[in-house]
């Protein structure tokens, strides 16, 4: 049953990730392994999820659930990704208050942070290959857009909506040539 499968997969995603961009590799792997989405569709969902308000996990779950089973699938997938977060946040809040300043907790958190960076780096490599070499050919337009948005963000500290709008306009111009 697709609803149970959506719920289970997104509960797993919710329990395996700490949220934010670190969720993308897990979401990508699950969507592709279940043949629910292609890598291109995952990239589109990530782009849309970044443009819309809310957490990327919820937005991705909503979009993937909607694609697979309509509105009810979106609700089930969204609930699935929220259950672990709500449960863990309640437990973490309780224990962080009790263990505040504990060197073991501080060291454990220092060990967890690099994992998130490694996961994000993995997604960057995978999505870069998919975006810069679609169908095996180099796409100079995608590289130019990525470089321009990188410069826009680093030099001018533009917000996410400005970066996305700028990239959309560049995409319309460069891919129309």
TrEMBL record:
* Transport keyword on record: no
- Transmembrane stretches in the record are 7-27, 74-96, 108-129, 135-152, 159-176
**Does the UniProt entry include the keyword Transmembrane helix?**
yes
Alphabetized UniProt keyword annotations: Cell membrane, Membrane, Transmembrane, Transmembrane helix
Query: Which one of the record's GO molecular function terms can you name?
Result: chromate transmembrane transporter activity
A GO-annotated cellular component: plasma membrane
InterPro entries in the record:
CHR_Transporter, Chromate_transpt
* Compartments, as annotated in UniProt: Cell membrane
Q: Which Pfam families match?
A: Chromate_transp (PF02417)
Q: What is this protein called?
A: Chromate transporter
Q: How does it sit in the membrane?
A: Multi-pass membrane protein
């Amino acid at each position: 049953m697709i609803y149970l499968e959506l719920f289970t997969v997104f509960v797993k995603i919710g329990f395996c990730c700490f949220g934010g961009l670190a969720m993308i590799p897990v979401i990508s792997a699950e969507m592709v392994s279940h043949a629910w989405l292609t890598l291109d569709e995952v990239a589109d969902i990530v782009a849309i999820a970044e443009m819309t308000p809310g957490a990327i996990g919820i937005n991705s779950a909503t979009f993937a659930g909607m694609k697979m089973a309509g509105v009810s699938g979106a609700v089930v997938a969204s609930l699935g990704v929220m259950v672990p977060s709500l449960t863990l946040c309640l437990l973490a809040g309780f224990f962080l208050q009790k263990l505040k300043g504990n060197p073991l907790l501080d060291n454990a958190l220092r060990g967890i942070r690099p994992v998130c960076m490694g996961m994000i780096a993995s997604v960057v490599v995978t999505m870069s290959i998919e975006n810069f070499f679609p169908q095996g050919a180099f796409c100079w337009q995608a590289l130019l857009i990525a470089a321009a948005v990188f410069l826009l963000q680093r030099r001018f500290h533009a917000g996410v909506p400005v970066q996305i709008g700028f990239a959309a306009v560049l995409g319309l111009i460069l891919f129309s040539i």
